[in-house]
Amino acid sequence: MATIIARMPEEVKPSKWAEFKRAFTGIRREETISGYLFILPNLIGFATFTIFPILFTFYLSTQSWDLSKPPQFVGLQNFAALGKDDLFWKTLGNSFYYTFGAVPIGIFLAFVLALLLNQKIKGVILFRTIYFLPQVTLVVASAIVWNWIYQPDFGLLNYMLSLIGIQGPRWIYSTVWAMPSVIIYCNWMGIAPSALILLAGLQGIPAELYEAAEIDGASEYGRLRYITVPLITPALFFVVVTSLIGAMQTFSQFYILTKGGPNFATTPMVMYIFNLAFSWFRLGMASTVAIVLFFILLLITLIQWRIANRWVYGFSGD
Amino acid sequence: MTTTTSDAVQPSPQKKGFYIGKKRRQLYFKLLAYFVLGLGALTTILPFYWMVASSLKSLAELMQFPPTLFPLQLHFDNYEVAFRMIPFGTFFKNSAVVSFCVAFGQLFTCSLAGYAYARLRFPGRDRIFLLYLSTMMIPFAVVMIPLYVIIKTFGWLDNLAGLIMPALVSVFGTFLMRQFFSTIPKELEDAARIDGCSYFQLYWMILTPLAMPALATLGILTFMGTWNDFMWPLIVISTIPNKTLPLGLLMLVEQQAIKTPWHLFNAAGTFSIIPILIIFTLGQKYYVQGIVTSGLKGTA
Lengths: 318, 300
Description:
The structure holds 2 protein chains of 2 kinds.
Chain A: H1 16-22, H2 29-60, E1 63-64, E2 72-73, H3 77-84, H4 86-117, H5 124-136, H6 139-149, H7 156-163, H8 178-190, H9 192-203, H10 207-215, H11 220-248, H12 252-257, H13 269-278, H14 283-311
Antiparallel strand pairs in A: 1-2
Chain B: H1 2-8, H2 12-55, H3 59-62, H4 77-85, H5 88-119, H6 125-134, H7 140-153, H8 160-164, H9 171-182, H10 186-194, H11 199-210, H12 212-228, H13 231-236, H14 245-254, H15 262-294
Helix pairs in contact in B: 2-15, 4-15, 5-9, 5-12, 5-14, 12-15, 14-15
C-alpha cells in the first residue's frame, strides 16, 4: 500500500552566505551594523584579555621560558617533570586539603545561618550587615587581626583556650595547625554569600507545602527533612559547585596569613603557580601547573553534574 | 486494639493541646535562633572590635597577657604615626582611581554589549556569546601569566593602566547585563523605533534609565571587587607611588622591625576599611541583589 503523504515542498534554505548578506541589506542593515558596533569594545577586550591568554597558556605549557630568552619548545616535558616534582604534589594535596576541609564546614554553617535567618526574625538586615562585614573588608586588614589572634604567646585565641585550661598549639607557625588556621579564618570570612543564596532558595519554597504538611500532622523535623531539604538542593548544588571552584583558587588569604609556610604546609596550587611564574620566572612550568589546575576544576565540576541527579531535586542535567 | 484507637482517633482536646504546644515550641525555637545568630554575630564582630581596640592601645598594653578588653588610655596618635610610616594618601588615591575607572568602564562596555547580545539580531551573535559563557569557569591562574606578558609588552608594568585596562571588560558583567535586558518588554523598543530612534538613542535614552538597578548592582560589585583585589596588583605593581591600598597595607606589615608594631598595623587596618564600609552600607541592597542573582563569590 502506497502511503500517501502530502509532501511539503522542500523549503528553500538560503545559503549561509546569502543569509549573511541579507543581514546587511535593506531593513536589517541598521540593526546588524549597530549590533556589531555595540559589541565591539567589549569583544576587543574579551579577545585580548581572555581568549588570547587562554590559548597562550596552553602554548606556554609546551615551552621553556624565563622571559629573557625566546621560549623554547620542550613538548610534553613540562608535564612529565611534574611527576617528579615533590612540591607540585605537595601543593596539589594542600589545595585538596583546604578545599575539602573548608567547603563542607562553610556550607554547613551557611545552611544553618540561612535556616535561622528564615525564621521571620526581627533585625535580619542588621544580622546580614554584620555577617557580611568580613566579606567586604580588605583581606590584608582582616589577616592582620587574625595573624595576631593566632599568635601563640600573646594572641587572643590561646588566651581564650587558656581560660578553659587548654594549652593552645602554635597555630600558623605549626605545620600541623597552619592549614586548620587558614580554614577557620576563611570560613569566618566567607560564609555570608553562600548563606544568602541558600536563604533566597528557602524563601522560594512555596508556603502551601508547609501548610499541607502541617495539616497532615508532620513534625518540624519531618518538614525540614522532607520539604526543606529536598527543595533547597538546587540552591545547594549551585553553592557547592561555586564554593569548590572558589576554594581551589584561594590565594590572598594564604599569601597574607601564612605566606605559604611553614615548610610549604599552606602553599596551595595557585600560590605555586604564582611563585613559579613571578618569583622563579619559570613561565612554561607555571603555565603547565595552571593547565593542570584548569583540568582539575573541570573534572570536579563534571563529577558534580554527573552525580547531581542522585541528590538534586528536579535536576535535568543541562 | 489499643494501638488502632490511639492511632486513628485524634480527639479535638488533644489537637488543641498540640496547637498550644506548637506555639510554645515555636517561641523556644525563635529564642534559640536569636541566641545562635547573636553568638555568630559576636564571633564575626570580635576580630573587628579587636582591631579597633588595638589600634588605640599602646604597644606595651597590646603585648600584655592576659589582654585588656578596653584600651587603658586612648592612643589616637597611633594613626598619626602609621600615616607617617607609609603614604596612605597615595595608596588611597590609586585605589580610588583604579576602582572608579574599572567600574565605569565595565558599566559602559558590558551594558552596551549586553543590550546587543540580548536584543539586536546579527549573524554569529549566539555563537559569540556562547564563547563568553564557556570562559566563565576558567580560573584566573590560567590567564594571569599571558596577561602579565601582554601588560609588559604594552609597557604597563608598574603602572595603574596595567590594573585598569585588562579589567575594563568582564564576562560576568556582560552576562549580568544581557540577562537584565532580556527581561525588558520588547514593545517599548518597537514604539521607540517607530518614532524614529536610532539603536544607540534607544539604548542611551530609554533603556539605560530603566537599567539603573542592574547597573548599580554591577557597579558596586565591580567597585568593591577591584578595591579589594590583591593578587593582580601584587603581580603588576612594584614601586610605592603606584601601590593600591591592599599592597600598601602589606608593605607596612612586611617592614622588618625589631618589635612588630601591632598597634600601628591595626590603626592602618581600621583606616583602610572605613571607605568600603561606607560604600557597602549605602549600596547594600544592590550588592546583596548581585550576590543572590549571580552567586558570585567575593574575594578569591
